[in-house]
Amino acid sequence: MGDGEVPVRLALTPDGKRAYVAGDGGDMWVIDLVNNEVADTVVISTSNPLSGVAVTPDGTRAYVGCGNNSTIFVLNTATNTVVDAIKRRDSLGGITIVAAK
């Protein structure tokens, strides 16, 4: 992917058309699974590995954990941009989204 960075976690969009792949160097890759190509690269952190990624059930947001700085970044999946950052007091090991019915 980029400069020796290793993919560590991934999440698929509900329609199965894209995968959001978190890297150990702080990059997030958006993979277009229809065309089998990297559609976008989003720099989440320049110095911390990403610890998890989850996509909301409606596919509009991706939540990306950055474990070393205890922050969850919120991506708008239509634009692949960071729209919010949620700071935590403890470290992150991963992210799961549970949809309530």
Give an account of the 3D structure.
- There is one protein chain.
- With 101 residues, the chain is mainly β.
- The protein has one domain (7-87): Thrombin, subunit H (Beta Barrel).
- The protein has no helices and eight strands.
- It has strands at 7-12, 18-23, 27-32, 37-43, 50-55, 61-66, 71-76, 81-87.
- The strands form two sheets. Strands 1-2-3-4 form a four-stranded antiparallel beta sheet, with no helix packed on it. A four-stranded antiparallel beta sheet has the order 5-6-7-8, with no helix packed on it.
- It is globular and about 35 Å long.
- 27% of the residues are buried.
Q: What is the strand and helix layout of this fold?
A:
Layout: E1 7-12, E2 18-23, E3 27-32, E4 37-43, E5 50-55, E6 61-66, E7 71-76, E8 81-87
A few lines on this structure:
By secondary structure, the chain is an all-beta fold. It has strands at 7-12, 18-23, 27-32, 37-43, 50-55, 61-66, 71-76, 81-87.
Helix/strand-derived category reads: mainly beta
CATH class: Mainly Beta
Strand order of the largest sheet: 1-2-3-4
Strand content: over 45%
Determine Rg (CA atoms, Å). 13 Å
Query: Which second-level CATH architecture applies?
Result: Beta Barrel
Global geometry: globular
Main sheet characteristics: 4 strands, antiparallel
Alpha plus pi helix count: 0
